[in-house]
Amino acid sequence: MKRFLQNIAIFGAIASALAVSIYTVSGHPVLAHTVSESQNSNENTSENSSKNIADITLIHAGNVLAIAGQSPKKNQTIIILDGNIMGIEDGFLQDDEANIIDLSEYFVLPGLIDSHVHITHEWNPNIRLDGVTKEAGDVAYDAAENAQKTLMAGFIAVQDVGGPKEVFALKRAIAAGKIPGPHIRAAGRAVSVTGGHGDRHGYIESILKIQSQDTICDGADDCRRATRAAIKAGADIIKITATGGVLSNTNAGTEQQFFDDELVAIVETAQTMGRKVTAHAHGKGGIESALNAGVKSIEHGTYMDAGTAALFRKYDATLVPTVIAGMTVVDWANNTDWLPPNSAQKALEVGPQMQSMLKLAWENGVTIAFGTDSGVSKHGENAQEFIYMVEAGMSEMDAIKAATLTAAKHIEMNDKIGSLEAGKYADLIAVKGNPLESIEELLDIDFVMKGGIVYKNK
Fold this sequence. Notes:
The chain is an alpha/beta fold. It has 16 helices and 19 strands.
């Protein structure tokens, strides 16, 4: 009886929204078509009157993992109205006029989230020329193509942690429904030190001047200014390059590059303007200095150890491992000749450490959010990270949780995405097999819905 009343409550909400009533057949609620007095006598111009049962979508799902960490359920109906989930019910509910999507032979789960991408570009042998030959329009079209690839791969949201201003136009265009793509939170240009990772290197002086950025800073006061500049440009989150990095064409290493007072200044400034800070960081010292300064998450984390993991736990910080990025740059260094020597050397030093780092972090209780650094690796191949996560010791369920619940909280969208629950966006994917038994199922997504709109259905 309790379950029956829950069913009635959910359908009651739909009935109220659509001005319909409900009745039951064999213990299951079914929508009944009614006409109100005002509709009989007059045209009702309210928003509700423009809706009808045909606005409802019922997804018949063979298996549903609504919340990662809980057991999946068989033979469920996901009820969708106005792009949102109204509820999930046992059995395959029916209505002649509702839009029914048959996924009864599929495994349905929340849309995936990538916490670390660079959606506006993709590394290639001509990448260093792209920066001085591509117009803003070229960058925008590239970004739109990359966004579509990402969505088709099952990733309904991303956090872009470093790129040009075109990312904000892309974010707005997707949100307005002008082009297909994932929800985007974006940092824009990273806050970096002069000559550090995130600055420009290896060009003649005139080109370097053209490429100058107002988020490059030196000293605490200047770093406050750079943080404010990033927020003024549209940053949802502040990205800093706390240590050297692999793909910057300089031999400045991979350890700490900001001074501690600069890190504190950035974090405090971001907090005053309602932003959190995430830090690119490879070296142990740089990771720990960033965490001690109040940075909320670390991208990469290559040389962390058990002591560093303890700091993650102390500050309730999140690690975004991006193992696929390490694997990608090692492949380039070994099998191509287009990486500058500085980058190739660092690739061979850093890349091989990243999977063992993830294993250490996971075994030491660090919170892991899924992230790939796509833009280094290819857009649309984001799910390959799942393979490396499982190889590092995470279960299939843990890896999916990292890409749903944990990532949603990390990018501050957990009120709308990350699980299939009433009131959240109808953002979901489906695969033919069971990803809890074989994570490789997520390499080939069969069905993608975002905001109640079907973007892919094999």
